[in-house]
Amino acid sequence: MEAGQNNSSGNGHALVAGLRGIRKTYYKPDGSVLVDALDGVDLQIHAGEYIAVMGASGSGKSTLMNILGCLDRATAGTYLLDGRDVSTMDDDDLSRVRREKIGFVFQAFNLISELNSIENVEVPLFYQGVPRDERQQRAMRCVEQVGLADRASHRPKELSGGEQQRVAIARALVNDPAVILADEPTGNLDSKTGSAILDLLTNVHEKGITIIVVTHDDRIADRCERVVRLADGLIESDTIRC
C-alpha cells in the first residue's frame, strides 16, 4: 500500500511524533543559504510502528534523524514528541527530552570504554537521578533482555562488535523511551552479526516499542513495516507494507 506525505499509518495507535512543515536550512558564514536540508516535511509516527527512513546521501535523512532525536533544531515548523512541543524548547529542555523520551542506537556503538556493560546501560538513568540500586536492577533487566547476562561485567574492549551493539540497544531501552532511533545500526557489523542485531530489534519492536531506523540498506528496510524515502529534503514516498 502506498501512502502520501501525511500518512498517519491508520493503526489507531497514539501519536508518538508529529512533524508539520519542518524545515532545516544551513547557512554560509556570510548569512547566505548553503543548503535547505529539509524543505517542509510533514510526518506522523504512531506508537508501535517500525519505520525505515531511507534516501541517498544529501537527501535529508540524517538531518531528519537529528531533529527527531532532539539533537538539532528545525529552522521552522512544529515538532510534537509524546505530546510535548519540542520545536521551541531551550537546550536544557531538549537535553531532558533526550534523556527521558528517546533511546539512541548508533553505528559506532558509542559505549564508554571505562565502564562495563551494566554501567554503560545505566548511564541514561544516572543523568535522570535514578537511585543506584534501581539503576542497577533496571540495567540488568535490559542486559538480560538482549541476551548478555553472562557479559554484564565485561568492558567494551572485551566484547565483540555484535555484543557491543546489544549493550547499546539495552542502553536505549533502559529509560522506557517513547521511541528508539537507530542510525545505521548494522553498519559496522558483518552480515551474520548484523542479521542477529536486526532479529533483536524485531523482538524489541514486537514488545510494542516504536523504532525508527535510518538506513541505506534494503535488507533492513525489508524488515520494517513502513518505509519513508526522502529526496532533496522532501518525503518522496511513504509506504506501509501490508
Overall description:
Helix 3 (117-127) runs parallel beside helix 5 and helix 5 (161-173) runs parallel beside helix 6. The protein is α/β, with parallel strands linked by helices and 242 residues long. The model is unreliable at 1-10 (pLDDT under 50). The termini are close together. It has seven helices and eleven strands. The protein has helices at 61-68, 91-101, 117-127, 132-145, 161-173, 191-206, 218-221; strands at residues 2-3, 15-27, 33-46, 50-55, 76-81, 84-85, 102-106, 179-183, 211-214, 226-231, 234-240. The protein has a single domain (2-240), classed as Rossmann fold (3-Layer(aba) Sandwich), CATH 3.40.50.300. Helix 6 links the parallel strand 8 and strand 9 (211-214). The strands form two sheets. A seven-stranded mixed β-sheet has the order 1-11-10-4-9-8-7. A four-stranded antiparallel β-sheet has the order 3-2-5-6, with helices on one face.
Brief synopsis:
The chain has 242 residues and is of the alpha/beta class. It has seven helices and eleven strands.
Can you tell me the CATH topology? Rossmann fold
The amount of beta strand, in percent, is: 25-35%
The name of the CATH architecture is 3-Layer(aba) Sandwich
Q: How many DSSP E strands? A: 11
Distance separating the two termini? 6 Å
Overall, the morphology is globular
Number of structurally distinct domains: 1
Provide the low-confidence segments as ranges: 1-10
By CATH, the superfamily comes out as P-loop containing nucleotide triphosphate hydrolases
Radius of gyration: 18 Å
Across the major sheet, the strand order is 1-11-10-4-9-8-7
**Mean pLDDT score:** 90
User: How does the helix and strand content classify structurally?
Assistant: alpha/beta
> Largest sheet, described in full?
7 strands, mixed
Order of helices and strands: EEEEHEEHEHHHEHEHEE
CATH hierarchy, class? Alpha Beta
